[in-house]
Design goal:
The protein has helices at residues 113-125, 138-148, 157-173, 176-184, and strands spanning 10-13, 18-24, 34-40, 50-51, 55-62, 65-69, 72-76, 81-84, 90-93, 101-108, 150-151. The protein is an alpha+beta fold. It folds into 2 domains: 10-108, Jelly Rolls (Sandwich), CATH 2.60.120; 113-184, no CATH class. The strands form 3 sheets. Strands 1-2-3-10-5-8 form a 6-stranded antiparallel β-sheet, covered by helices on one side. The two termini are 14 Å apart. It comes from Rufibacter tibetensis. Residues 37-100 form the Cupin type-2 domain. This is Cupin type-2 domain-containing protein.
Length: 188
């Protein structure tokens, strides 16, 4: 099902206090990429992860952005760029405890990244995640991991894919995926 343009361009997460604005959606680029601008609160960030099928390019607009990419730990200033290649463990974070950081991220190709973000932020806003923004339902978590194609270092990829595939299939069988449509599909 295609994404529709009537969806909000800006999403907020009340738990981790960040804001994401879609500058270019997958629909607008024919799936070539998704471009988002992120406003990250002091001390905010995500956990280590990696993607097999897409890259992330980070460019700082305001403040200092921390990027851990492979064995490198970078502190980027406005105008500086870093790329997290496919299959490379990475994370981003705001090293400041006082100032926000604003950066743009390009995801190439777009894949289902936009849907994953919309679901994750929707669940957080509806109180269906823990304080770190992780879904409390194993079914929603499996469907989110499947959409985002994100993996955790330290656990073999084949095992993660297998577990997520089985749990996501059960979640769809139980109709749990239908509950997530409201976050990324136009409602009648």
């Amino acid at each position: 099902m295609p994404l529709v343009s009537s969806l909000p361009r800006t999403l907020t997460n009340p738990l981790i206090k960040d804001k994401v604005t879609f500058l270019k959606t997958a629909a607008e680029t024919d799936g070539a990429y998704t471009l988002v601008e992120v406003e990250l609160a002091p001390g905010g960030g995500n956990g280590l992860h990696y993607h097999v099928d897409y890259i992330e390019i980070f460019e700082v607009v305001e403040g200092t952005l921390g990027i851990q990419c492979g064995k490198e730990d970078l502190h980027l200033q406005p105008g500086e760029v870093a790329t997290a290649p496919a299959k490379t463990v990475h994370r981003f974070y705001n090293p400041s405890q006082q100032e926000r950081v604003v950066f743009q991220t390009t995801i190439k190709p777009a894949r289902h990244f936009e849907e994953m973000l919309r679901i994750a932020y929707g669940l957080a806003n509806d109180g269906k995640t823990n304080q770190k923004g992780i879904p409390t339902s194993i079914w929603y978590l499996a469907l989110l991991f499947e959409k985002g194609e994100s993996y955790i270092p330290g656990i073999p990829l084949w095992l993660q894919r297998g577990i997520v595939k089985v749990l996501a299939r059960i979640a769809r069988y139980r109709g749990m995926d239908q509950h997530l449509h409201k976050y990324y599909l136009e409602q009648p």
